[in-house]
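Supplementary Methods, section 5.1.

A reviewer requested that the exact input to the structure prediction be made available. We therefore reproduce it here, unchanged from the version used in the analyses.
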Amino acid sequence: MRIRLWAFAAAMLAAGASAQAADCFSMTDWHGWKAASDDVLYLKVRLHDVYRVELSEKESFLKAPGMHLVSRAWGSEQVCNPIDLDLKLADNFSPGLATHLFIKSITKLTPEEVKALPKEDQP
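The structure derived from this sequence is encoded token-by-token as follows.
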């Protein structure tokens, strides 16, 4: 009985890990971004994937001209959870000064959700 219970637990853990891995992306596959508001970003990943990044705090300069994101990988370059994505907002006029962005959630959009995005919000 114990062996079956452990086998079942291991199978569930593996299924959960593979389901989570499907929603992960490598930072090297990230090819663009767009701010939809002062607390929502859309990241373009690979050719057709889009991820919605919701920030914990509003950042009023997110849509300002000359702004860019600075990302840093700590260990693995896989992004699966908010803690995996270290983002800062910087501008072209003050190199070295950057504002840390606190990530609340990261969600991969379905193809239907990507198509439904307004043109100005598409990364």
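Helices lie at 2-22, 111-116. These observations are discussed further in the main text.
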